[in-house]
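Narrative of accomplishments. A recurring question from our advisory board has been how the design workflow behaves on a single, concrete structure rather than in aggregate. To address it, we present the structure tokens for one chain from the evaluation set, followed by the sequence designed for it. No filtering or post-editing was applied between the two.
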């Protein structure tokens, strides 16, 4: 007795044919999201620039006599033109931020190297935790600490500097008491940006390939020579990026500067004397509550200048980073 013929077997679905299709779809979705995020950053940047330009337009295209009267009221008659007003503010902003970066840079690199290559594991973990906490402290806390604690405490040191190094123009005395000066503000800003630079450079130092370090040590290099030949060249572009990030924080800092610095409107390098300089961000915060519509336009115009300077600084940093990475 013959059995009934079996129906032809259906070919099994080849999963290899379906997986690439779903993979390609996921890839397109992910690529679209990535493009959207990138475009969003450009849109936000353009929106900020257009907002500043639109709100500053009454200053640019308005009655210059009215603008001069507003600027004169802001400065007590020391300046009547916009560039005569924003010039000293821009000078003070760059001076304070540059001093803060100079103070913080080498200390940050030293702390990062200690955490990544010298400290025991438990101590390194504890220091890393402290650095991350310091990076998260709000600027107003640094301002309160600087105004209430550092300003009274640091006067003897600044006075000693003025007495013994006063022959150097930037340390010319007498030192102001209380020392609400550029030197004090730069020190506070350096403490603010120090954990930012330290945190980034520490992570970059830890990413140095172990083979490079072991090869240098195997050739007879000391630990410092190994760091100089392997770690620092590997982390060069990252160090520059971290420094520029800290510089950007210092350029835009408001509350700490406002709470410590005694403002002035001069092109002055006298770091130990009060009422010499002021920054753009702190000046906006100080003048904004009492400004009328034209005054707000003038202040936003100074903010536009700060925006352009910050953009150019970051663009320059990007070029330096690309060159260093090559």
């Amino acid at each position: 007795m013959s059995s009934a013929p079996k129906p032809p077997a259906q070919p099994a679905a080849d999963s290899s044919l379906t997986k690439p299709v779903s993979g390609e779809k996921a890839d397109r979705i992910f690529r679209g999201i990535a493009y959207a995020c990138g475009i969003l950053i450009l849109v936000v940047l353009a929106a900020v620039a257009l907002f500043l330009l639109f709100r500053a337009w009454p200053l640019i295209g308005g009655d210059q006599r009215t603008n001069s009267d507003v600027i004169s009221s802001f400065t007590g008659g020391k300046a009547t033109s916009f560039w005569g007003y924003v010039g000293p503010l821009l000078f003070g902003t760059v001076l304070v931020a540059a001093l803060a970066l100079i103070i913080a840079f080498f200390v940050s690199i030293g702390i990062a190297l200690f955490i990544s290559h010298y400290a025991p594991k438990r101590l390194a973990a504890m220091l890393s935790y402290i650095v991350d906490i310091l990076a998260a402290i709000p600027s107003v806390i640094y301002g309160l600490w600087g105004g209430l604690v550092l300003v009274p405490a640091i006067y003897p040191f600044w006075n000693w500097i003025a007495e013994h190094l006063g022959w150097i123009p930037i340390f010319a005395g007498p030192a102001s008491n209380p020392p609400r000066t550029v030197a004090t503000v730069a020190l506070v800003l350096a403490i603010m940006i120090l954990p930012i630079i330290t945190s980034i450079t520490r992570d970059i130092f830890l990413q140095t390939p172990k083979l490079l370090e072991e090869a240098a040590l195997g050739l007879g290099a000391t630990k410092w020579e190994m760091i100089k030949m392997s770690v620092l060249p590997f982390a060069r572009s990252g160090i520059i990026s971290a420094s520029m990030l800290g510089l950007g924080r210092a350029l835009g800092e408001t509350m700490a500067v406002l709470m410590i610095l005694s403002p002035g409107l001069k092109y002055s390098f006298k770091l130990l004397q009060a009422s010499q300089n002021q920054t753009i961000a702190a000046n906006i915060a100080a003048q904004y509550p009492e400004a009328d519509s034209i005054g707000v336009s003038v202040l936003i115009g100074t903010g536009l200048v700060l925006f352009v300077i910050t953009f150019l600084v970051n663009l320059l940093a990007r070029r330096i980073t690309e060159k260093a990475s090559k």
